[in-house]
Amino acid sequence: MIKTDVTFITVSYNSAKSLRGAIESCLTAVEMHYPDTGKVVVYDNASEDSCPQIIDDFAKRYPKTFIGIKGEENLGFGKANNRAVEVSPSKMYVLVNPDVTFKPEAITQLSATLNSAKNVAIACPKLLYLDRSVQPSIRRFPTFTYLLLKHLLGENLQSLLHPFDYYYAKMPAPEKVVEINWTIGAFMVISGEYVARYGLFDERFFLYFEDVSLCVDVWQNGYRVLFEPQAIALHLYQRVSTNSKLNYLTLIHMISALKFFAKYRPYKKRWQLVIWLLKINSKLQSALRFQTSVIPQDRENNFIPVKRGS
Question: Can you give the pTM of this predicted structure?
Answer without folding.
Answer: 0.86
